[in-house]
Amino acid sequence: MPLDELRTLLARHARPDGATAIDGVLISKVERVDPPSASMSGTVFALIAQGAKRLALGDRVYEYRAGQYLVASVDLPVTGHFTEASSRLPALGLGLVLQPAAVAELLLQAAATDLPPVGGTPPLGIAVSDAPGELLDAAIRLLRLLDTPRDVTVLAPLIKREILWRLVSGEQGAAVRQLGLADSSLAHVSRAVHWIRDHYAHSFRVEEVARRSGMSVSAFYRNFQAVTAMSPIQFQKQIRLQEARLLLATHPNDVTGVGRRVGYDSPSQFSREYRRQFGASPSQDASRLRGSAVTVTRNPAPALP
Prior knowledge:
Layout: H1 2-13, E1 25-30, E2 37-40, E3 44-50, E4 52-57, E5 60-65, E6 68-72, E7 77-84, E8 91-97, H2 100-109, E9 126-130, H3 133-144, H4 152-168, H5 173-179, H6 185-198, H7 206-213, H8 217-228, H9 232-250, H10 255-261, H11 267-278, H12 282-290
Helix pairs in contact: 1-3, 3-4, 4-5, 6-7, 6-8, 7-8, 9-12
Keywords: DNA-binding, Transcription, Transcription regulation
Region (Disordered): 277-305
Protein name: AraC family transcriptional regulator
């Protein structure tokens, strides 16, 4: 069975840091169910071989398990955790970072008739599908290269390209394709996402961000909500609160200062929204972080398996 071999390869080559000898390819092995944690999704293809994971984006909840894959085509603030993982049956998964340039190059070489039509509505920023046999086979062949390091330089790019083609021409192809199109609605939203992330501590007018992203206000708001499951202001709040938690990990005694640094003029509003997001007040959470009960890093990727 393909999943059996995939599990064997993932278990053999898993490392604590998740890295592999193949650029852009990550392996995850998790042996316990931890509480949900918040971070950015990255733009990734994530395939589960064993176990299950739950991911929340705004009011949407995604669950994927063995034999299923997730595609995140925009770097979004998400909350996720494995729901099935143990030392006896660890969660195992493969992640591949999706590069817009690689998608664009592939689309330039593909004939239009080789791709399914794209609908009129913007694709979701995150989606889950069952992995077809061809995709599983390509993933297995990519991981086999880790047993023959001399083959990685030549063959890994070819197999990664094959995986990308399976994604582009598959069920979630519309989202992956738009990742490589400079003038797609997804690209416009992605530009807005990056701008808000870079200026999260400052107030902004939606009209200003719409102009920067190259869309009318109505089209921008509609597309942003469809892709991210949040309004632009809700998205900014998610980024502010995630950044605040990172700052509290290193400045646990300066709750008021941290709130101000991430853009909150009102300490009570900061405390209220922080508690709603993380289940504890900033000071309580800071104590937990200081006691190492919670590990916070700047670039975790819960969308990766």
